[in-house]
Amino acid sequence: MAKYWNEEMECMEPDKMRALQSERLVKQVRHVWDNVPYYRKKMEEKGITPDDIKGIEDLHKLPFLSKADLRDAYPTGLLAKPLSECVRIHSTSGTTGKRVVAYYTQHDIDLWNDCTARAITAAGGTKDDVVQVCYGYGLFTGGAGLDGGSHTIGCLTLPMSSGNTERQIQFMEDLGSTIICCTPSYAAYIGETLKKMGKSPDDLKLKAGIFGAEPWTEEMRQEIQNSLGIKAYDIYGLTEISGPGVAFECECQEGMHINEDNFIAEIINPETGEPLPDGTKGELVFTSITKEAFPMLRYRTRDICVLTRGKCKCGRTLVKMAKPMGRSDDMLIIRGVNVFPSQIESVLLKMCNASPNYQIIVGRENNNDTFEIRVELTDDMWTDTIKSIEELEKKIAVDMHTVLGIKAKIRLVEPNSIPRSEGKAVRVIDTRKLV
Amino acid sequence: MTVKQLSVFAENRPGRLSAISGLLAENDINIRAMSVADTKDFGILRLIVNDPDKAQQVLKAANCAVTIANVLAIQLPDKPGGLAGAMKVLYDNNVSVEYMYSAFVSEKSAEAYLILRADSNEAAEQALEGKYTLLSQEELLKR
């Protein structure tokens, strides 16, 4: 059984990798300069040209890109290839107002598939495996990403998408699925359902699971491993950079290897933007050096984590990132979906004519995120009937679902009942213990 | 002719009714009729008081969500069929009742008082005209 999918890249000597990254970076900066006026302007504002970027040591000279840039440039402002050469679009699960859309050429899809193939191989997958993909398919990158990697390896792929859990289990049993890919919370739910159906892991052939798109803990890993009788591997990615497979876990389960031949990772001080040395906690920044259609130079992920270099026990030399320990902005990840408090505020103000005094309560019950939005009722929001309040709750719930992409329980509360700190309402109470 | 009713939104948590009624007591506000409509998460306390404007101010100052609605105060004979007669009149005239409750009555009186909100208070008034006595705020308070 092959241990690596792309041994040359995964086990490359660090010096050689740096040289490869330098060469690709120089080329990529030129490509962006020539094709993306939005970023070119940013470079000009900093007074630099592609000639100033001679290698990876000059990376820090480049301006950052942030989610705000992606919104400003929506929908095609950061596109670096003609649309006629693009073959696919994916979109993030939700941001303030406009969604972020990412474009892919066939070359970009092939490279992405190579990345997810590495992840599946690291989890022990070969062409003899049956891979059940229960990530959502569609604009979300989860389904397509793992599906592509599975096909690339030649695994028998079951494109199940998420939901209909009993059927998922029935397929696992009948078709002998050996690897499952989904969000960790869904994996935990499948484990519970298996038990409820009076079955045990012995009834299945599952051996491994690849789980990502939301934060999860070591305890949850243990629980999933036990309830499904598998080894659980973490996977990391974001639509802006490609999707799942930017980094993946090996059998050591000690951090995720970043596919450095495609993505240069940096850690910066989120306050000052200064690069920080390896081993220091800071914000993760990615530069995609192989993507053609939607190349991101120094994209700020807002994920806080640590990078560790050195040869791993698995033999890979790819730099490892720790599980993200938090965010440098206020983004929440709830049931795998990105939620910004500002989105909630704008729904309340613009769509529902409701008070902007709200509180988000996120918790976890049975390994599933609970999501409640409490909104203070003001005098002009209701008449004196129960019906008027229930209709308001319903309207807010529907509008939130439309904008956020996930359902929230809406609860109207009395004015000023949400605690204030220095005059400002405490916006988020997150009782999930994920770090 | 309608009377002013206060509606107070109260979450279902211990102490809310005590706090609201305590506040009215401190401010010397007399409650002449009341009802509580409840759901799983919240309730609406509806009150007819001697000084609705003052009561609204007091409750607002204490961060309560309060609105004022106009409702009818209907005098009914306090005997079997007293309520049924009024309901029939409204039904015959296609008036729907949104909610209703009884006002405090004195044992000495032969009359009962019903507080009622209809989908159209005007239509309800017209329907009841000549058959029932509708009270003004002042009249209700004097009973």
Outline of this structure?
With 435 residues, chain A is of the alpha/beta class. Chain A has eleven helices and 23 strands.
Describe this structure in words.
The complex is a heterodimer of chains A (435) and B (143). Chain A is of the alpha/beta class and 435 residues long. Chain A has 2 domains: 7-329, ANL, N-terminal domain (Rossmann fold, 3-Layer(aba) Sandwich); 333-430, GMP Synthetase, Chain A, domain 3, CATH 3.30.300. Chain A has helices at residues 7-10, 14-35, 37-45, 67-72, 106-122, 141-153, 165-175, 184-196, 218-228, 341-351, 386-404; strands spanning 86-91, 101-105, 130-133, 156-159, 179-182, 208-212, 231-238, 243-249, 256-258, 263-268, 282-288, 299-305, 307-308, 320-321, 326-327, 332-334, 337-339, 358-365, 368-376, 409-413, 420-421, 424-425, 428-430. Chain A has a 9-stranded mixed sheet. A 4-stranded antiparallel sheet of chain A has the order 10-11-12-15. In chain A, β3, α6 and β4 (156-159) form a beta-alpha-beta unit. Chain A is globular and about 70 Å long. The mean pLDDT of chain A is 91. Chain B is of the alpha+beta class and 143 residues long. Chain B folds into 2 domains: 3-68, VC0802-like (2-Layer Sandwich); 71-142, ACT domain (Alpha-Beta Plaits), CATH 3.30.70.260. Chain B contains 5 helices and 7 strands. Chain A binds chain B through residues 377-379, 381-386, 389-390, 411-417, and chain B through 5, 7, 9-11, 37, 39, 41-42, 44, 46, 60, 63-67, 69, 98-99, 117.
